[in-house]
# Entry
Amino acid sequence: MKNSNLFYCQKIISMYIKNANLNLTINKSRKLIITNYFRLVLFLVFSIYITNTATAQCTYSICVTNAGTFGTGTVNVKVNGTPVAGATSLTDGCVDFTVTDGATILITYTTSGFGLNCYYIVTSGAGGAGSVVYTSGYPGGISTAPPASKTITVATPCAVITPTNFGPLQAPCTNLDFENGFTGWYGTTGTVSIGTAVATSPIYVPVTLNTTTGTQFIVNTTGTDTYGGFPKVYPSGGTKSVRLGTDVTGNNGTSLEQYFSVTSANSSFTYNYALVLQAGVHGDNEQPFFKAEFYDENGATISCGDYLVVAPGSGFTQCSSPTDVYYKGWTTVTVDLSANIGSNVHVKFTVGSCAQTAHMGYAYLDCSCSAFVDLNNQTICAGQSATLTAPVGAASYTWSPAGIPGGNTNTITVSPVTTSTYSCAMTTIGTSICNNTLNATVTVNSNPILTVSNDGPICGGQTLNLNIAQSGYTSYSWTGPDNFTSALQNPTIPNSTNANSGTYNVTATLGTCTATGSTDVTIGAGPIVNPIPNITVCNGETIATSAFGSPSAGATFDWTNSNTAIIPSSNGTGNIPSFTAVNNGTIPISTTISVTASLSGCTGLPTTYTITINPDLVVDLGQDVSICPNTSTQLSASPNNASSYTWTSNPASIISSIYNPTVTPTATTTYSIKVDNNGCTGTDDIIVTIRPLPSISAGNDVSICKNTSTQLGASGGSTYTWTSTPASVVP
# Structure
């Protein structure tokens, strides 16, 4: 449809939309019901629709270079037979012209001499930019002049770059970091031609298409660059990076491209590059170079993504040897593709050596993608800080309000007192400078307040209750004495002791904000009872009053008794009065008295003591005994395990402290003993009688004849034992 048709259709639409409602048929296939609300919208939509289906118009350019000394070449350009203004006698420089789908470009060439080293290049963009459509020859010793006539047929549509130029469409973020080699990438190698006199770089002419092999495509996994000393693999990336180009001189060129879909998830394209370029004594149109280009799916340049650097380049470091080599370490560039979400983008990286063949150039590359988003709004609490981070890879960052520390970097840390808005103006890295401004609001919430209390002071053994008056917090964290911790709002400590006294701290969280509080707890340990010695008495003795005391003045006392056979009451208050010990048994009896002191409602730990009543002590020395003069006998007292034994005698003759001494009286003697067993004593006596010696008579002496007998007779004894000298008698 021609432009006149467009005007005609617009006129028809303008006429019919005057009605409130309209049935309109276009091409007998599209029926629309239009209301007043959509009149202007419909007009614009149809204008765009018809324009987009009209014959496309594109801008091409022709750049002519006369670099030789063998005459001057002149170029004449016609499009569909019509001469191009400014290109009827073009000898140097670039001229832009308009073409349409399928148009015919006729280029004629004449020369005043040999015409050597004269050439021209036709590109699909203004000023020699865009893709190379045709080049007539190459610089540096080519002896063939451009053809006298060249016919070029423009593609249909003219502005569409077919995917075969840079490989098939790739999914978002396909192998951008080259961890899978060159999968998803489209490479070319070719030659570098001298650009026009006003060109900012040489012109790369691809020769070998769809290749990623050879020395101009290297996947690096380790090592450092020979000239720059920087790592060959991007330090903040994966395990691999690639090198494009070669360190061998010549007019070599290399490109690497990818055609991919853009979504919100990959609308931020980041490429990291490092360069080594050898500078010659040439203009920019001949020097080694590195170029990054971005195109939309219609082939139009995404100007904010363009980047071009030629040797020696700004921001490069000069090698000490050779001094004509310059390098630039790893540098990050981020391109915002948000405007291309839902469509496709073509990215192309080109590196070329010197067009005069004497100097080399190569680049290292590593890419990534992410969502290009605004600064994240943040919510903080009073006294806290927020960190705002803009995307890396911009030429400059300017944060506002002014005066923020680090305000010229991509990351700042702020600590606003009240809710504040911050913005970051980013300047892109590239040939065409673009500006982006990102914004974020930091909301400052007041810290919540805690009212913390406890039910103290309390006494030991009681339950301690900790309390927070405010509720609704998301979490609690208590700490306190005796390694206390709790995550409850109102924790308790049963059977508390003095060890639980002290300060309890709590932190409560509400969202991102925290509040702290504390409470001091006093737990009375209770007064103590002064030590009470154990009491041991004997039956019938008087036990003195048990008067209880405490270091705490004013304390009162309670006691319990475990044996009512000794003290009739099982418990009582105050002191225990004096009483007479009674134990009519044969074994000791005892009781345990437990005493507690109380003061101001708190009762201390009990103190205990015992009262033991021993029975009367029965001492027994046994029956009286009689012995012969000058003999001994052993006395024995019972009990034999008492504490002490004291012996006396009449007449006095014994000194002993054991229960069973041996005595040798010279006369009948009475022995007395006093036995002490833990304070209880007993006595007994025993008489040891000395019997007199018997008066023995064997009668008068007698004489007898040999071999005769006589009877002897004795008197005065009870038993008799005979002996003879010489021995002859048998009793």
